[in-house]
Amino acid sequence: MNIIEYADREMLVMNVANKLAGKLKSALSGNDRATLAVPGGSTPGPIFEMLSATDLDWARVDVMLTDERWVGEDDERSNARLVKEHLLTGHAAAARFIPFYRDALTPAEGAEQVAPSLAAYMPLSVALMGMGDDMHTASLFPGDPGLPAALANDAPLLCPVYPESQSTPRVTLPAHVLNGALNKHLVIFGSEKLAALKRAEKLSVKEAPISALLDDLEVYWAE
Ligand SMILES: O=C1O[C@H](COP(=O)(O)O)[C@@H](O)[C@H](O)[C@H]1O
């Protein structure tokens, strides 16, 4: 992995949004469409807002999440809600969003229904990921009984997980899909996360799921 440190969060947000836009533009220059996978959580909102103001051919961009909490968009925990409010606005309103949540289905049923349709969007052109203090990324959580299945190379393109540490079950892109992205980026804020990321290099994937994704990973950090 390559860690790029920024003087402050504003600088990071501006630079990362520009970088992602550049990667999307070059993906679109050689292909009809490009796929962008983005995280949920508390970190990416400002990057989404900056990116949404970028003038690129968003009508040819497919946007999906790296993972989703199994709740409807009326719930504040919904990652789809975050993306719709902060990314799919301005120029980026023209992008196509691929939702994972299916009302009235369980996460396992929903993942089984959605997974085959995701093949049309592979490989991801650009994957932006976040990471928790516990070294989870997407919804690959340490110690989760569903983790080994989501780490398998033959995992379906969307996996249900039921992390005990979380308030909702979730679905997640598996490690092989994230690793298959043509560009892999991780954004983290704060010293604790930076220390956790460095610790992850020496830990097992079960203890630190982010460690499954470190090859060719561009990491952006600011305090
Ligand atoms: O639950 C989640 O957590 C991670 C990290 O979120 P953050 O709030 O610490 O930025 C996020 O990347 C993932 O997509 C999300 O569902």
UniProtKB/TrEMBL annotation:
One of its GO terms (biological process) is pentose-phosphate shunt. InterPro entries: 6-phosphogluconolactonase_DevB (IPR005900), 6PGL (IPR039104), Glc/Gal-6P_isomerase (IPR006148), NagB/RpiA_transferase-like (IPR037171). GO terms for molecular function: 6-phosphogluconolactonase activity. It comes from Sulfitobacter delicatus. It comes from the Bacteria. Pathway: Carbohydrate degradation; pentose phosphate pathway; D-ribulose 5-phosphate from D-glucose 6-phosphate (oxidative stage): step 2/3. The gene is pgl. Its EC number is 3.1.1.31. Keywords: Hydrolase. Hydrolysis of 6-phosphogluconolactone to 6-phosphogluconate. Belongs to the glucosamine/galactosamine-6-phosphate isomerase family. 6-phosphogluconolactonase subfamily. This is 6-phosphogluconolactonase. It is an enzyme of class 3 (hydrolase). Residues 8-221 form the Glucosamine/galactosamine-6-phosphate isomerase domain. PANTHER family: 6-PHOSPHOGLUCONOLACTONASE. It catalyses: 6-phospho-D-glucono-1,5-lactone + H2O = 6-phospho-D-gluconate + H(+).
